[in-house]
Design goal:
- The protein is mainly alpha-helical and 197 residues long.
- Helices cover 82% and strands 0% of the residues.
- It is globular, with a radius of gyration of 17 Å.
- The N and C termini lie far apart (43 Å).
């Protein structure tokens, strides 16, 4: 399959394959309303499509190969969300939504930080540690904000009932911010340590 030939390592292929298997399960299994199942599968499709496009662009234009762990970080965030829907964790455990938003943002911020760092290291962009961190957190927050808007639009147009309370969106964005900030701060610390060696 040409789709998988683009990936350079088996770990990346396996992570993407896991998301494709999950997509089939999301379409076949009966675990929620049709509208909510479609919303979940759209999240998965978006993750696969964006990863694939970014992977190809980085490989072909900048000769940057995303390592397999980046694909698994993304896959983990999608699988965690899916598990919450399949096993009804969102309905049964109030903390689960906060946890998945925290981890979901980490699964975006880590790849973004890696990409900005690699582009900077190879001289395609000129960013210091602070700006790499700022861009990774800011772009993560932009993407999760679009996701929150999609939840609201879904509730408005398709009655998906994904926004569960008055403060749900504010809480989601708070945990998204923490999830974006933590790995980026760790990345900056590691950058600093590497530069001081």
């Amino acid at each position: 399959m040409i789709f998988f030939k683009e990936f350079k390592d088996n770990w990346t292929k396996l992570a993407v394959l896991s998301l494709l298997v999950l997509l089939i399960v999301e379409w076949v299994a009966k675990y929620d309303t049709v509208q909510r199942q479609m919303a979940l599968s759209i999240t998965n499709i978006a993750a696969i499509a964006i990863f694939y496009i970014v992977y190809l662009k980085l490989k072909n234009k900048y000769q940057i190969i995303l390592p397999g762990y980046i694909a698994w970080v993304i896959a983990f965030g999608v699988w965690l969300d899916a598990a919450g829907n399949f096993a009804h964790f969102y309905a049964n455990y109030t903390w689960y939504d906060d946890f998945t938003h925290f981890v979901g943002s980490m699964s975006i911020a880590i790849p973004l930080f890696y990409v900005f760092y690699q582009l900077s290291q190879k001289g395609f962009i000129k960013l210091g540690r602070f700006n790499i961190a700022m861009y990774a957190v800011s772009l993560t927050m932009l993407l999760v904000s679009v996701y929150e808007i999609s939840e609201w639009v879904g509730d408005l147009l398709f009655e998906t009932y994904r926004i569960t309370g008055r403060f749900d969106t504010a809480s989601d964005l708070f945990y998204n911010f923490l999830g974006a900030l933590l790995p980026v701060l760790l990345g900056v610390w590691l950058m600093r340590k590497k530069e001081n060696v």
